[in-house]
Amino acid sequence: MADKTLVTPGQSTATTMVNEASSRLRQNGVTRPRAGTITGRVWEIADEVSKAFGNHDVRKEVIAKGLAAGINAATLQTQISEWRRFQGLGRNPIATGAPGQTDAAAEDEVVERRILKKLSNQIVGNAGLYYVCFKLSLDGWNVMPTSRNARGIDILAYSQTGKRFLTVQVKALSKSAPVPLGKTLPTFIAEHIVICQRVLTQTPRCFVLSGEEVRRRAHRGVKNGQESFWLQPKAYEEFLDRWDRIGSGLDE
Question: Do residues 166 and 246 lie in contact, with contact meaning Cβ atoms separated by under 8 Å?
Answer without folding.
Answer: yes
